[in-house]
Design goal:
Blueprint lengths: L2 E5 L10 H13 L3 E4 L9 H12 L11 E4 L12 H8 L1 H11 L4 E5 L4 H9 L5 E5 L9 H17 L2 E4 L2 H6 L7 E3 L24 E4 L8 H10 L5 E4 L14 E4 L4 H9 L3 E4 L13 H8 L4 E3 L14 E3 L6 H10 L4 H10 L2 H7 L7
Parallel strand pairs: 1-2, 1-4, 2-3, 4-5, 5-6, 6-7, 8-9, 8-11, 9-10, 11-12, 12-13
């Protein structure tokens, strides 16, 4: 039997993203079992961690169902990873994980996939050099860290990339960063789970009153300057911002901006269908330079034109159908008018979905050829 060990950057219980789609793709292609290992802290604690824990306790999420073909492990670890000796000390707590892996790989051929660099990932790669291995880089991981923790993550990332049999990356900038991997490197951009969307011929018409909308996390990368300028340049258009809010909101927002709370994915898709234009207003930072936003694929798979700032992979999509790039000091009235005028027919939406599915992405990377 073919199986997969997947060290995830996200808990299984979180909102479905690239890691969840990767293991679903693997199972669909091979029928194999998956051992999913949830992440553990890979940096020293910060004050904001305690606020996030309190928020999670105050608003617990419903349990995510676990399919019969997947087993989830939650490793124990102290939040000391960057410190010398942390791998030895945490290694004592990781023994149940190591034993579970030994039992799991006894069932047959097995692929080891690393979704996040860590000392545990390195330990497993070194314990099982005979296993075909993959490092799937979905983010600029060091950019999430500071100081000593950042340097430690950079070292772990380089070490995992050096040991992995294959490296896939989710953006062009990451491809340049890992160019020294040579033939082991494959670009596999993000995609859309179009099976969760209405069929192209079942999509509702655009609303009579045009609406500019964003669905997603509103955090330090969110470009409030652009959104505020956009609302002021188009005072007759509602601007709906939907999602969890982290950080301060500008004191005096234009009256046409509405903040709506976070919602589950099906409701988010319904919100998107009420938009006329999908917004992706991210600042250009070290973190966003490596981002290929999944919401771009969701918006376009719903037939929405996209108005985005010039960051990450979006900066490379200038001139593509349905993509409009905006600057805070540009002519935002004209850009909105161009976006509102764009239309996709049913055939164009269907073709976009075929070319930008998760299956198409991972198939093109030839990952299973290692087995």
């Amino acid at each position: 039997m073919t199986c997969l060990i997947y060290l995830s950057p996200l808990p299984w219980s979180s909102f479905a993203q690239r890691p969840h789609k990767f293991v679903e793709w693997f199972h669909a292609r091979t029928g194999g079992q998956v051992l999913w290992i949830d992440p553990y802290p890979t940096r020293l604690p910060a004050p904001g961690d305690f606020r996030r824990v309190k928020a999670a306790i105050a608003a617990p999420q419903a349990a995510k169902p676990t399919p019969a073909w997947l087993t989830v492990l939650q490793p124990r670890a102290l939040p000391i990873e960057p410190l010398p000796g942390s791998a030895w000390l945490n290694g004592l707590l990781w023994q149940p994980v190591f034993l579970a892996i030994e039992r799991f790989i006894a069932s047959g051929k097995c692929l080891l996939a690393i979704g996040k660099p860590s000392r545990m990932a390195l330990a497993i790669l070194r314990r099982h050099p005979q296993l075909p291995s993959l490092f799937d880089v979905m983010d600029d991981f060091p950019a999430f860290y500071r100081g000593y923790s950042r340097h430690a993550m950079e070292r772990s990332e380089r070490a995992v990339a050096a040991l992995a049999g294959q490296v896939t990356v989710s953006s062009s900038l990451l491809a340049r960063r890992f160019a020294d991997c040579g033939a082991r490197l494959h670009l596999a951009l993000n995609a859309c789970a179009f099976e969760t969307l209405p069929a192209p011929d079942a999509l509702p018409p655009r609303p009579e009153q045009p609406v500019l909308g964003y669905v997603g996390t509103i955090a330090q990368w969110f470009d409030w300057e652009l959104v505020t300028a956009l609302a002021r340049a188009n005072p007759d258009l509602p601007v709906r911002l939907i999602g969890p809010l982290f950080g301060a909101v500008p004191a005096q927002l234009p009256a046409n901006i509405a903040l709506l709370p976070a919602c589950e994915h099906r409701q988010a898709i319904r919100h998107m269908q009420s938009f006329s234009v999908g917004l992706i207003p991210f600042k250009r930072t070290t973190l966003t330079d490596s981002v290929d936003p999944i919401k771009y694929y969701e918006y376009r798979a719903l037939g929405l034109p996209v108005l985005s700032t010039r960051f990450g992979e979006m900066a490379m999509r200038e001139g593509e159908p349905g993509v409009f790039l905006a600057e805070p000091h540009g002519d935002l009235t004209a850009q909105v008018a161009l976006a509102l005028a764009h239309r996709d027919d049913i055939a164009q939406i269907a073709q976009f979905r075929i070319g930008h599915s998760w299956d198409a992405r991972f198939d093109a990377a030839h990952i299973l050829q290692q087995l």
